[in-house]
Automatic annotation (TrEMBL):
GO terms for molecular function: phosphoribosylamine-glycine ligase activity. The keyword ATP-binding applies. Residues 107-313 form the ATP-grasp domain. The gene is purD. It catalyses: 5-phospho-beta-D-ribosylamine + glycine + ATP = N(1)-(5-phospho-beta-D-ribosyl)glycinamide + ADP + phosphate + H(+). SMART domains: GARS_A, GARS_C. The keyword Ligase applies. Keywords: ATP-binding, Ligase, Nucleotide-binding, Purine biosynthesis. HAMAP family: GARS. It is an enzyme of class 6 (ligase). This is Phosphoribosylamine--glycine ligase. InterPro entries: ATP-grasp (IPR011761), ATP_grasp_subdomain_1 (IPR013815), PreATP-grasp_dom_sf (IPR016185), PRibGlycinamid_synth_ATP-grasp (IPR020561), PRibGlycinamide_synth (IPR000115), PRibGlycinamide_synth_C-dom (IPR020560), PRibGlycinamide_synth_C_sf (IPR037123), PRibGlycinamide_synth_CS (IPR020559). Its EC number is 6.3.4.13. It comes from Jeotgalibacillus marinus.
Amino acid sequence: MNVLVIGRGGREHAICYSLSKAPSVKTVFCAPGNAGISDVAERVAIEENNHAALVNFAKEENVELTIVGPEQPLAEGVVDVFLAEGLAVFGPTKKASIIEGSKSFAKDLMKKYNVPTAAYETFTDADQAKSYIQKQGAPIVIKADGLAAGKGVIVAMTLEEAITAVDDMLVHGQFGSSSAQIVVEEFLQGEEFSLMSLVHEDVILPLELAQDHKRAYDGDRGPNTGGMGAYSPIPHLPRNLTSDALETIVQPVVDAMIAEGRPFTGVLYAGLIMTTGGPKVIEFNARFGDPETQVVLPRLESDLAQVILQLLKGTKPEVVWSEKSLVGVVLAAEGYPGKYEKGLSLNAFEQQDQETMIFHAGTEWEENKLISTGGRVLLLATAGGTIQEAQQKIYEKIENKNTAGLFYRNDIGHRAITK
C-alpha cells in the first residue's frame, strides 16, 4: 500500500522510518518532509496547511492511509477534510484536537470527569493572575492556553519568574493569540514520563513508555524546550504504571471525549508525572510526541501501517516490541530555545552507520550540502541491552562527530542509571 505522512520534523522522520520497514507498505510519501526523510520516503512539495492539495495528492497516488504528524494542521481541521472525501486518515478531528489546542479545555475536562491533574486557575487578566500567584507562592507553572510549539510552558521557581511569565504572555503577547489566555497550575513533584496511545474512539492501544528531557542543559537546568532527548523503556518506574495510567487517566479521558461529542481518533499523548498519590496529568497532546517517538517507534517490531488500519476498523491489534533499550540525544543550534543561527554545516551527519539512527528535525539540502534550518536540528539514537549501554554508545558516536555550532545534553537517560 501507499502511505502519506504529513509533516517535516524528527517525529515525522521516525514515523516514515517505521513505515519504511513495514512489509505491507510499498511507498511512503512525506509532505513536505526534510533532508533526512528523503532516505526513507518520497518527499512531496506540499505544505502542511494546504489541505486541498494534500487530499488531491492522496487520491492521485492511491494513498490508503494518511498519518498527520504536527499539531497545527490537526487544529486547522486537516483530518475533517480527508474524512469528508472518504479517505483513511489517522489523527483527531478539529473538535477532538482541542485537547491539545486549549489547555483550559483539557483541564476543565479532567476536572469534570475526575481525572487526576494539578490544581489550576485560568486567566485573561494579568493583575488577577499575579494576585493568584502571590497567594499560591512558587514554584508554580504558567502555561499559554493555545499551541506554542512546545515552548508555552514556564516552570517558575521564583515569584519573580512567574510574574515575568504572566507579563510576557498576557501583556506582551509572547505567543500571540495562544497566550491571550493562560493556565496557572500547581507545581507537581515527581518523575515525569510519556505514555502515547493509539486510539480509535473507545479502542486504545498503549505504546511503550518513554521519558523526555525538557530542560535545555545538563542536570535539568535552563529553559524549557521542545525536548532535548528521550529514552525508552523506563526501567526504574513500576511495571504496572501503564495499566494504572490507562485505568485512571487514558480510558476516562477517551470516554469523556466521546461523552462530550468529540470522539478521539489518533495518537493521544499523555504527559504524566508519578506523584506520591499516583500518576497525574501534566498535559495532553493530540499527536505523537517529539522526541519520544524517535525512541519508541524503532522498538516496534509490528507493521505500523497494519496496526493503525486494524485499529481504524475497531479492533485492538496485537503488537510486538523489541526488548532493547533506546537512547536518543537532540543536537540543537546554539542559542536554542532562544535566538539561534540557521545554515549550519551538517556534513558530518550526511552518512549514517548501521548502529546509529539519525532523525532529522530542522535540516535541508542547499547546493547538495546538508544545513540546519531549525533550533532542534537532529536526534541521534542507538540501541543497547540496557539504558546505560545505549547511553554510552550514543555519546561515543556523537563525540566522534563535528558538532560546531550545535549543543547537546550529556546526561540523557541519567535518571534510569542513577536510580
